[in-house]
Amino acid sequence: MEIVFVRHGQTDLNKTGRIQGSVFDHDLDESGRASAERAAANFDPAGFDVVFSSPLKRSLTTAEIFTKGQKEIKIDQRLTEINFGEWDGHFLSELGQKYPDAIDPWGKAAADYIKYAPSGESFAALDQRCGSFLDDMKKNYLTKKVLVFCHGTLIRMMFAHYFTHGDMKYFETMDNCALAKVSYLNGIPRVNYYNRILTFE
């Protein structure tokens, strides 16, 4: 099995440095759509057996641009971005100043963020959700090539689930419209690439 993950294109919240979880369902901004179209020009969806997407607009629009009408896009709720609760929509830099113990050394939300955003989704719950999706992929598409359009934190957790027991700090947030690939053979997952850029600004 091969799974290629694609992070969605840029939105206005991405551009301003605000946290964008599942609370806000913003679509791609003008720059994000243009970047997705340039990246898609260097991408061939024909080799994939099945395509999945988060239901959020930014992911689904990116999926439609990349697949060029050639593939059915299956919506899976488990691919929705993490719900950051009270933190959603706020500047990450400001949150880091206010709650330094909830920010990792690279400036991203750490597992302890949930102490200050109690309505948010825990990293453990996100790990379980990602694991459920990956288990289904192994069960139903073990010999297939799978294409998945989703979100930055979610992709980090997909790889963390496989390789670091759900600890996301070992994986950076990919760039918008970047790709990551993992292969699964004889029960062993392997990273083929991570944060691959198809186009440059």
Output the strand order for the largest sheet. Answer: 3-2-4-1-5-6
Distance between the termini: 32 Å
Task: Name the overall outline.
Answer: globular
Instruction: Give the overall average pLDDT.
Output: 95
CATH superfamily: Phosphoglycerate mutase-like
Give me the secondary-structure category.
alpha/beta
Spans of at least 5 consecutive residues whose pLDDT stays below 50 are: none
What kind of assembly state do the chains in view correspond to?
A: single chain
Largest β sheet strand count, sense and barrel closure: 6 strands, mixed
SSE order in H/E notation?
Answer: EHHEHEHHEHEE
Question: What is the number of helical segments per DSSP (H or I, 4+ residues)?
Answer: 6
Structural Rg: 16 Å
Beta-strand share of residues: 15-25%
CATH structural architecture: 3-Layer(aba) Sandwich
Number of strands: 6
User: How much helical structure, as a percent, in the residues?
Assistant: 25-40%
Features:
201 residues; alpha/beta; Rossmann fold; 17% strand; PGM_Phosphatase; His_PPase_superfam
Explain this structure to me?
With 201 residues, the protein is of the alpha/beta class. It has one domain: Phosphoglycerate mutase-like (Rossmann fold). 32% of the residues lie in helices and 17% in strands. The protein has a six-stranded mixed sheet, with helices on both faces. α2 packs parallel to α3 and α5 (123-140) packs across α6 (152-163). It is globular and about 45 Å long. The relative contact order is 0.22. The model has no long low-confidence stretch (mean pLDDT 95). This is Histidine phosphatase family protein. It comes from Lactobacillus kullabergensis.
